[in-house]
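Ticket opened by: R.M.
Priority: normal
Category: complex prediction / small molecule

The reporter submitted a protein together with guanosine-5'-diphosphate and asked that the result be attached to this ticket for the collaborator who will pick it up next week. Submitted input follows.
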Amino acid sequence: MRPLRPNRLPILTGLLHDRSVRLAVTGLSGSGKTAFITSLLDNLLSAVGRPARLPFLRAAAERRIIAARLSAPDGETVARFPVRDTIAALAADPPHWPPSTTDLRRADLLLRFTPAGFIGRAAGGTAKLGLEILDYPGEWLLDLPLLGQSFPEWSRATLDLARRGLRAPLARDWLDFVARHPAEGAADPEAARQAHDLYRAFLAACRTQEQLSLLQPGRFLNPGQITDPSLLWFCPVPVAIGAQAQAGSMAALMEARFEVYKRVVVQPFFVQLARGVDRQIVLVDVLRALNAGAEAFADQRLALETILAAFRFGRRSLLRLLFGARIDRVLFAATKADHVPALQRDHLEGLMANLVAVPTLRAQRARARVAATALASIRCTEDGTDVIDGHKVDVVIGLPEGGHRRIRFFPGIVPVTPPPEDFWGERFTEFPVFQPPRIAPAAGDGVPHINLDKTLDFLLGDALA
Ligand code: GDP
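Result attached by the on-call engineer:
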């Protein structure tokens, strides 16, 4: 390595001292965003005193993180991630899960560290990393395709989907109402609102009763801070593709609201995401979808493909084409991996990798990095073995929420590739909700996890080098 000339040191020192990374965290509702951010913050805040919690985050393992504190930038308009409350939930007796993400939230962490290389050390000892974390509902990403669709196109696709499979019985009330209020009829704002309410109730039932994922528009179930709720009072209606809606008709009213929603809600969100974010982690509850059956799994795949389109790299990168994105690393993480024992966690990681294989290759060509992992942000179980029918099997052992005795849980075999038809003969095991481990109220000890350190090394390793 070439020796540095002393008069260049101040410039290098300046460069080293001003690193910042904006990390966005997303995933569909219940995928584990709140748990992930809580564990990330608590473990990084504890990394100075307890670096052994993060053995695969190089900066921690090498004891180069020398200070960590939360910060609160002035004039910030995005709501703060309630980290004190989420840590308090895990420190309570008994500990409990903090409430989930429903809106855009932000947390800021300032890390001081010793750079790894010769240049860093020569330049004066320590550097700073400002880590800004944005937490937002993954449902909002499902709106990206809407930007390229006309109202008739979107209506047709959504109605087709609603008439099939598990959705059909849940869509009945909404579809009956829409049939009684024809799209060509005179616009009736009250009827439009009722149709919207019924459509929204249908989406909610798809999510809670059938664990379906591809539920558009994303703001109908996760509205966030929308000041004018009437922006959302629309739904798909049967209209011919290519035909112009008659002025003053129900179709024209619905279409106008759909277009306003795209312009006022969807576009600004993607602008903010593209311009303001360097790194993205997408959390996916693969185990829940496996558990819910063939259609829920297929639906999660479709939703994931829609989300992937947002982070597609290379010349066809939508986010870059539309908004000039600068995101250069994306990690897809299958969450709650502590529901399955060690070998099955490898399977889970394999399955996650398989689901994002194509964009991963494309990203490599575009010099971006996309990877997959299996992760437990908050590890609630330990591994063990049992003998079932004379065979030794791996199990996980943990305390079910609200229970008094730990259970030994055999989760079945996680497929490494998207499962074939015959896999779905029997329902995949139903997973218990385990009580989280109790942590120390003041940062210091960190939160038990699986692979959080590897995840952080992928997302932040270069910024802490
Ligand atoms: P969000 O909607 O994406 O913010 O999801 P949460 O972080 O609130 O997680 C939803 C639920 O999943 C939690 O209440 C827990 O029951 C469960 N969960 C999340 N992360 C983990 C984990 O690492 N291990 C286990 N066992 N359960 C988890």
